[in-house]
UniProtKB/TrEMBL annotation:
This is Aminoglycoside phosphotransferase domain-containing protein. Transmembrane segments: none annotated. Signal peptide: none annotated. InterPro entries: Aminoglycoside_PTrfase, Kinase-like_dom_sf. It comes from Novipirellula rosea. Residues 22-284 form the Aminoglycoside phosphotransferase domain.
Length: 368
């Protein structure tokens, strides 16, 4: 894969100017990312899109990124245009090598929010440390929501539409697909899942399904049907913005207080027209398992968003419904993929178990 990366880089950089190509762990989408360091000390992110992503789709994504950048959203990384002598790709930002589409973009400094490791048990951990972590978490949630609002504002020039929200119809469709599968999921043989942690996580998921699925599925269908009859403002949104996709760095003020500031955003693969509420639902879901109070979490996210852009009550209500429905659908998706479809993933079983545990905790938190 390094050889392929080195070859495609020649469309943007001279081979003699490349000092290092380092592969970076990427997500479940099938994309691959490399950190490129040049002899001049510049850093770039080389991305290979998943195999079924077309060049025309990447061009659409790049159009959104360029528009956001042009309209003042400096959080979006700068794309590098090709400098190849090949007239077919000159001044393009996406390259199709016959199998994959590639892009080269400015490296985003900083790191995403990460929960402190460990923290001790209930008898030894420091309550003041827990309170400080909670404060930092809410600061990150609020500033991340402000960043999302800045992005939304910067791409509004691409058009707004009054319509039933696509995020609702997509969840209606998926919920109707999952309902007939649920009995088979609950009756499936978990013993064939070799990894003990993953097997345990799936068992916990199935216990939630047995206790609540029939009730929540019926309730969600009714809620989604009502929401589908509403017309809300839609526009280009991110649709997959979670804790790993917004980067932060520490900023030290004159009063010695350290705050976190947003340094940039990554991964625009899912951008499409939808309700802004869907981004807020996805963003808060990254943090809910560790939040002490759901109401306070929503306050931080919504207040942060409204610092940079307006958000009416209709969008706020929609965001809360989408977050709850999505948590159950995501949990059921993992159970279906693993127990019925026998899908294989690039992540190891431990990481998948953590994903399942995450959605169980979101469900438990929102159920309170």
């Amino acid at each position: 894969m390094i050889d392929a990366a080195r070859s495609v880089l020649e469309n943007w950089l001279q081979r003699s100017g490349i000092q290092a190509i380092d592969p970076i762990e990427s997500g479940l989408s099938g994309a691959a990312v490399f950190r490129i360091t040049t002899t001049d000390g510049e850093m770039w992110a080389l991305k290979r899109y998943p195999i079924h992503t077309s060049l025309s789709r990447v061009d659409e994504i790049h159009h959104v990124m360029v528009t956001a950048k042009h309209n003042g959203c400096d959080l979006v990384p700068q794309l590098k245009r090709c400098s190849s002598n090949n007239a077919a790709v000159a001044d393009c930002s996406g390259i199709d090598d016959g199998q994959h589409v590639w892009e080269l973009a400015q490296w985003v400094a900083g790191e995403p929010w990460a929960e402190p490791i460990g923290g001790g048990d209930l008898f030894t951990r420091d309550p003041s440390a827990d309170a400080e972590t909670e404060r930092q978490r809410h600061e990150v949630m609020s500033r991340g929501a402000s960043a999302i609002a800045i992005f939304h504002r910067s791409v509004r020039s691409l058009g707004t539409h009054q319509q039933p929200p696509p995020c609702v119809s997509a969840r209606q469709k998926r919920l109707k697909e999952l309902i007939p599968q649920m009995n088979a999921i609950m009756a499936s043989d978990r013993a064939r899942i070799e990894h003990p942690r993953l097997r345990f996580s799936l068992q916990m998921a199935i216990e939630r399904f047995r206790a609540d699925w029939n009730h929540v599925a019926d309730s969600f269908l009714a809620t989604l049907a009502a929401l589908s009859r509403q017309s809300v403002q839609t526009q280009i949104v991110l649709r997959d913005v979670h804790a790993e996709h917004i980067f932060f760095a520490d900023s030290h003020g004159g009063d010695s207080v350290t705050t976190r500031v947003v340094t940039g955003m990554i991964d625009f693969d899912a951008v499409r027209i939808d309700a802004p509420a869907t981004d807020l639902a996805r963003w808060i879901s990254s943090f809910l398992p560790m939040c002490t109070d759901v109401h306070s979490a929503w306050h931080s996210v919504l207040a942060g968003y409204r610092l940079e852009s307006s958000l009416n009550e209709q969008q706020e209500v929609l965001a809360k419904h989408v977050a709850q429905v999505s948590a159950w659908i995501n949990l059921a998706n993992w159970a279906s993929w693993l127990l019925l479809e026998n899908q294989n993933f690039s992540y190891d079983d431990e990481h998948i178990a953590q994903r399942i545990d995450h959605w169980i905790r979101v469900i438990d938190k929102l159920g309170r």
